[in-house]
Design goal:
The chain is an alpha/beta fold. The protein is built from 5 helices and 20 strands. Strands 1-2-3-5-7-8-10-12-14-16-17-19 form a 12-stranded mixed sheet. It is elongated.
Length: 353
């Protein structure tokens, strides 16, 4: 009974102490420096957030913008959660004082652009989530100061264009999620300097072209996801340029043109010790028409048969033609030789008579 009374008294003291500097719409947990403001339909970031706050949760509110100086003097903050709001714009100096912030979640908002100065005050950030927004492009300056970033989630946006060098300063990045966007081409240099990248997810874009040296700088990638795009052929050199101990590839749900060339490319890829096509058994042919819907693995041994037969027929035809030409030439040579002999013997015979 005594212990129960002491526990209640202690809880009252903590609550009383925290209420002195805690916004009335939030719950402040002094022992953990956690301020919970979830789901209160807040239109603005509340004032009087304790300076010692380590984690601030503002998810599921009605925030529409992040103005300058909203988090002033919150130097101790490590985690800021702002997902599931209605944020459209992030102003200059919105994250001022957050130089020690390590995780920022602004996913599930209405953000259509990360400005050139977005990363200015986020130099210690290790994880950034911007999934489920309305981003259309990524500037090469937007992330330039995030040298400590290890995980970047840009999935489920509308990104059609990424400027060359957009990721150039992210030398510590290990996970990059770009799935469910609208990228059509992966250019050489997109992933330059990402030597520590381990996971690259490009699934469910509109990719139809991957330039040969696109993945050449990825020396640590263990998982490369290209499923659900518009790829119909691949170049073997594109993957041969990946120099890792082991890389797993996922390439299903693409409109593959099942021909001898595709079979040879996948055969070469799977013959390389460090490359593994995880979903080869699920690759489906889109064309030619007679193979539409068929699994590549069920027809791959037959794809080069027609080509081999055609080459064989052509070879035999050429060989027969050459032999026939040699035979005809030999016959003509003998005929001409006999004719020459007959002509040379004629006068000689007449003189003898």
């Amino acid at each position: 009974m005594f212990l129960l009374v002491m526990a209640v008294l202690l809880q009252w003291l903590v609550t009383s102490e925290s209420s002195k500097s805690c916004p009335h719409t939030c719950h402040c947990y002094v022992a953990s420096n956690f301020v919970d403001c979830r789901g209160h339909k807040l239109a603005h970031v509340p004032q009087n957030i304790p300076h010692s706050t380590w984690m601030l949760d503002l998810r599921r509110n009605n925030l529409t913008e992040l103005g300058p100086g909203l988090f002033n003097a919150l130097w101790s903050m490590k985690i800021l959660l702002l997902s599931s709001n209605y944020i459209r714009s992030i102003h200059l100096n919105a994250f001022e004082s957050l130089g020690f912030l390590e995780k920022l979640d602004i996913s599930r908002n209405l953000i259509d652009e990360l400005s050139h100065d977005f990363s200015n005050d986020l130099v210690s950030l290790k994880e950034l989530r911007v999934a489920f927004n309305e981003l259309e492009h990524l500037s090469f300056k937007s992330l330039q100061h995030m040298e400590s970033l290890e995980k970047l989630d840009l999935s489920h946006n509308q990104v059609t264009f990424i400027e060359r060098g957009a990721f150039r300063g992210l030398s510590k990045l290990r996970h990059l999620y770009l799935q469910a966007n609208r990228l059509e081409v992966i250019h050489d240099g997109f992933f330059f300097m990402l030597q520590n990248l381990e996971v690259l997810n490009l699934a469910r874009n509109n990719l139809s072209v991957i330039e040969v040296d696109s993945f050449a700088s990825l020396h640590s990638v263990t998982l490369l996801v290209l499923s659900g795009n518009q790829l119909n052929h691949l170049k073997f050199k594109t993957f041969l340029n990946i120099h890792t101990l082991s890389t797993h590839l996922q390439v299903s749900r693409n409109p593959w043109i099942c021909d001898c060339e595709l079979q040879r490319v996948f055969g070469k890829i799977m013959s390389v010790r460090h490359l593994h096509v995880d979903d080869y058994e699920n690759l489906t042919c889109s064309s030619p028409l007679q193979l539409a819907g068929a699994l590549l693995i069920s027809v791959d041994t037959q794809l080069c048969v027609a080509e081999t037969a055609t080459v064989l027929v052509i070879t035999i035809t050429v060989l027969v033609t050459v032999i026939a030409a040699i035979v005809m030439a030999e016959r003509n040579r003998k005929k001409n030789q006999e004719k020459n002999w007959n002509e040379s013997d004629g006068p000689f015979d007449s003189q003898e008579k």
